[in-house]
Structures are given as C-alpha cells and as structure tokens.
Amino acid sequence: MAEITIRNLRKEFGDFTAVQSSSFKIEDGEFFMLLGPSGCGKTTTLRMIAGLELPSSGEIKIDGEEVAQKPASQRDIAFVFQMFALYPHMNVRKNLSYPLVSQGMPRVQVRAKVAEVAKILGIEAILEKPIGCLSGGDRQRVALGRAIVRNPKAFMMDEPLGALDAEFREHMAVELRALHDRMGATTVYVTHDQLEAMRMGDKIVVMNRGTIEQFGKPQDIYDKPATMFVADFIGSPSMNFLRFHGNVERGTTSVKLHHQPLAIPEMREPFEGDMVFGVRPEHVRLTDSGGYRGQVKATEYLGTTQIVTLNTALGVIKARTASGQVARVGETVGLEFDGKTVTLFDNQTGRALRSDLNEGVLAHG
Ligand code: ATP
Fold it and tell me: Could you tell me which of 187, 105, 107 has the C-alpha nearest to residue 144?
C-alpha cells in the first residue's frame, strides 16, 4: 500500500534538463500511467521514484515519508524493467524463491509465499519447469511473480509489454490490469502507447520535453485536453485543428470560422488573437446543408466506421462516420460540429482556453 506524492521534481544531466519540475500525486492502489513520446522524461521520472536515480531537486514522499535521497533498497518498491528478465538456469520455483531466500526468509515461509503467488498468477502447474521451456506468456507471469513475491509497497513498470507482438501485448495488458485489481498495489507504469495508457490506467500524466502537459483520468484527458500537444497525442486520428483569428468574450457560445457561426462551449475567459478550433473526428458530421463546407479528399474503410478526409477553407479535417454513409471523393459536403465537445486553444501557447467543457480540469495541468 502506498501513496506517492511528487513535488517540483527535477533532473538535470549536465546542461540538459530531462525533467523540468513535476508535481503530481499517486493515490494508494492506483494504476498510474506516465505517458509521452520517446525522450520526454518518463523513465527518468520512474527511476527517481524507485530510487535508481537521484533527483537534482524536489520531493518524493511515499506514505508521507520523504525518500528522495534514500537508496532504492529503503523504499520497498519493486521495479519491473522487462518482464523476461529471469534466471534461465533456474526453474520457476527457484526464480520465485530467490528474492525471499536472499532476504533470509525461512524455507517454510518461502514455500508458502511462492505457493500463494503461483496461485494468484495461475502458474502452479509449471513451478518445477525450467525457464527455457516456458511460453512467452508464462515467462511473463513468472517475471511478474518475482516482483510480487516480495510484497512491495508499490510496483514500477517500464514499458513491460514493449517487446511483445500486438495481439499478445493486448492480452497481457488485460491480464496485468486484472491482476492489479485483485492485488490493489499502487503501480506506476511507463508507456509511449496512448491506447495502452487509456485502456489500463486510472490516471495518466502526459509528458512532453520534460514537462507535464496534463494529469488526470483517461476520459478527462481525451475529452478535455489541456493543450494542443495532448489533443494531438491522444486519439487516432488525432483532434482536428482549424486556425483562425478572432475574439471571444466571456460567456460567448459561438465563433465565426470563415464567416460561418459555429457553436462552442460557453467561454469562461475573454480572448483575442490567433486561436485554434479543436474538434475530434467523431464529433464532425457530414450533412447536405451545413454552412461550413469541405471537399472530400479520401475515405478509409475501417469496418463499422470510416475516416473521411476533407479539404476546407481553414485546413484539412478528418471525420469519423458510419461506414454506411456515402462520401464520394471530389464532392462538396456540409460540415457540422458537436459544439459541446469543441476545445478552443490559444495558438501561441498551445493551451486550451477555459470553457464550460474543461472547467475544473485545467487546474490539474
Ligand atoms: P524513452 O521511451 O525513449 O526511454 P523517456 O520518456 O523514458 O523515453 P528518458 O529515458 O527519461 O525518456 O530520457 C529523457 C531524456 O534524458 C532523453 O533525452 C535522454 O537522452 C536523457 N537521458 C536519460 N538518461 C540520461 C543520462 N544518464 N545521461 C544523459 N542524458 C540522459
């Protein structure tokens, strides 16, 4: 059981700052995702929490106790780098027993603990088998078992499914999440895969170039992005961005895009200048009548839905529609947007402007 609080955490490698100044809180029992593109500082953040990397400055509290300067061995955290890191010359039982035997635990207790963990993971039948003759899935379960057997306060996992093929990866993701739900141990999980983060996480921190772009529940991150980076990084296809110049008053509920008034959530702050109208593909409707118009450039059939790409006066838009909807390449159609789901961004800073849609969420950023 562990609640982890990070405040103003920073890491410099010489002149380079890998983590700028991160602050977030991981509740006890949460499955917590650190998400972002390669090099954004996810692994460095995880290693600092685990005690494998010393922060340049900042606080790390585990259950209220400051641990930032303490060695990993005093933090009671299991770090799962790569699920397949097992001792190949030992059988499954010995792999699971090893961390306990090296702690000096009496044999009888070790046997009982290994039996308990094997039951949780469903690997009782393979306890005497050598590692070399296990399937990928069983190896992965044993590797997890080796982390679980110590009963740590929390688990740190760095792209544990990264080396697996897509189908098996999906299967193990479900299994890992189900295991977490049974055990309830705080888990911090690094991934660059937005789908994995959305599917598995209770909360997500989205990182970019060493800074936190947004912190929140998967649905809030998807529906109410705090920045254009988040809106673009999460979702496939990503959010459409239409750039325009104008002004919005506090309380405004529409904007003019290329002379067409379009509904938006009620604005909570005034703004004047270059803005970006952000709308997700599934919130774009193709109609006969809409005043904002686009010409169909391409269609991609995806089974139940299709992605229709259109050229419009302010840029390219992708719409996700039912695959039965007819959209012929070259034809001009009307576009309607679900105004309640639109996010306006400040084009210069990339930050979302405050509106009814995202009120209360941006404060977490
Ligand atoms: P990836 O998924 O590619 O590992 P990441 O988001 O986990 O990406 P980090 O491994 O945390 O990124 O690295 C963040 C930045 O810090 C990168 O630019 C990396 O090159 C740099 N970095 C990491 N460790 C060191 C180190 N020991 N010395 C110098 N630079 C480092």
Answer: 187
Please say if the pLDDT value at position 168 is more than 80: no
Query: For 281, left (φ over 0), alpha (ψ -120 to 50), or beta?
Result: alpha
CATH number corresponding to 237-355: 2.40.50.140
For residues 312 and 208, is the Cβ–Cβ distance under 8 A? no
CATH for 4-223 (3.40.50.300, 2.40.50.100, 3.40.350.10, 3.30.420.40): 3.40.50.300
Average pLDDT of the residues in 41-57: 96
Does the Cβ of 11 fall within 6 Å of ligand 1?
no
End-to-end CA distance of the chain: 26
pLDDT in tens, 121-160: 889 999 999 998 888 888 888 988 888 888 888 999 998 8
228/291 Cα distance (integer angstroms): 26
Question: What is the 163 CA–ligand 1 centroid distance (Å)?
Answer: 19
By DSSP bridging, strand 57-62 and strand 4-13 are antiparallel
| 191 pocket-lining for ligand 1 (C-beta < 6 Å) | no
Neighbours of 117 (CB within 10 A): 23
Distances in whole angstroms, Cα of residue 10 to Cα of each of 22, 44, 124, 172, 287: 7, 10, 43, 33, 50
Q: What are phi and psi of 228, to 5 degrees?
A: -65, -30
Does the Cβ of 87 fall within 6 Å of ligand 1?
no
Residue 332: alpha-carbon gap to chain centroid: 37
Domain ranges of the chain: 4-223, 237-355
- Do the two domains 4-223 and 237-355 of this chain adopt the same fold? no
Distance separating alpha carbons of residues 361 and 354, to the nearest angstrom: 9
Residue type, 265: P
